[in-house]
Structure of DUF455-domain-containing protein:
Amino acid sequence: MVELLEIAPFDQLLSHFRFFLTLRSQEGHYRSLILFRLSTGQAISKDGQANGEEKPEPGLLATESDPSYQLNTNSKQLYAMEASCPHLGADLSHAEIEECDNSVVAVCPWHRYDFDLRTGKSETGLKACTYAVHVNLDSKAVELVSIKAPEEGSGWRLVELRPISEEFADPPPTSSPRAKDENDFRNESAPPVEDEPVVPLDNPPKTLMQWAVLILNTPNPTLKVERTKHAVYLFRTGKLSSIGHKTASAPSPPDLPPRDASWTRNLKADPSQVRNRKNRAVMLHALANIEQWAIDLAWDIMARFGPSHPNIPSAFFHDFTKMALDEAKHFSLLTSRLSAISPSTPYGSMPVHASLWESASTTAHSIRARLAIIHLVHEARGLDVNPGTIDRFRRAGDLDTVKVMEVIHADEVTHVTSGHRWFMWICEQQGINHDDGGVIRAFREEVRKGWRGEVKGPFNVEARETAGMTRGFYEDLRGELGINQDGNPKESQEERTLVRDSVGAPGKALADIPVEYEKGS
């Protein structure tokens, strides 16, 4: 019997022509798919005929004797295919769609390999995985779209359904634009980029790793956002020579991303004082500061650990470039709201802290540690506190910020999902067994070594469960970072000053930023 996995009512898929799907099995395995919708949205009658559509010519309907029949059992021209090209792993979410004599193919943006949307076959001899799409009427005559579940694993569920924007059909501008909507990542309260182009005139980056290190070394947040948008566009549309993580010449990321002087003067603030202030502008400023560091964290995990893991699937880079783009969007949305409600206090004018980067430094030696601490502790904690933050803005009557925070929260669930996905992957590579609880033990050991204090509730159990986090990932969880063997806390250095090494190798320079970290977690 064919196991079907329900995706959504058909009318919810009419907003876009492509959707990104993330599936997870009971065993913790992941599949990323693209759902293509090639037809216009029209309802079907109870006999299966599309209302308002002419009946197909005899012989044009797929029959059970047609090998493609089981791969397109709907009249909506819906197709599901794996999200990565089986050649070199390019993201197929922006593949061109071309009609052939008797088929429709998706053309990979990197090397023009074509794959039949029904069968997955390519003239090159390669084959992409495709999944049969079904559209059925339920008892209330609602059209439900389902796909055939993957054969490997059991208990598959849909954990992400994300519309794919068409904004990458054209390149973003190479100068800072005045945005018209949130998709343009409006950033009104950050300073303008002065005389520095998005693409450097001298020695422009040619690989994703080079772009990652350039962005990490970009102090101005507006330029960081624009470079993030441009780099992701180049990566998704096949305009980079390669990812660049397999070469011996891959550049090294900075130990600490630099910040503009206008920001560094406020980086000595006590994070607890920043956190305890309730003013809406202060809250927005603090949240924007976190998102600026989050942009760097997304690029850093790729640049720092990609070269040391040359066999990591290309989907890793797809997930984290998407994350970098999300964080750039979040930063811009928050600074735009800050500008709207408090024009006299632009981003950079209030106290900020760099405590997130302490965890980045603590986990710089291990991708497993980085995924555990940054994505399955820090970002997961965001899932817990976001509903309260949203409610606070709602009580203040700031519904525009509520909408922004709801976008951020939905995106953050997918980020924790990515953290869980790649934590599971690295554990599998290291021979750690999921079935006997080995993955949970490995995670808790990383937290013990890399986190300070107890991870406290209340927990957003629903959001965490959607992201793949069972209770073993957060209940009774405590870190011992900074604790001596006798159980006493080590002396802490309240302020750590990292000074730029003017004679060091490019890419390894440190920012001249005084940083004070949180005393506890």
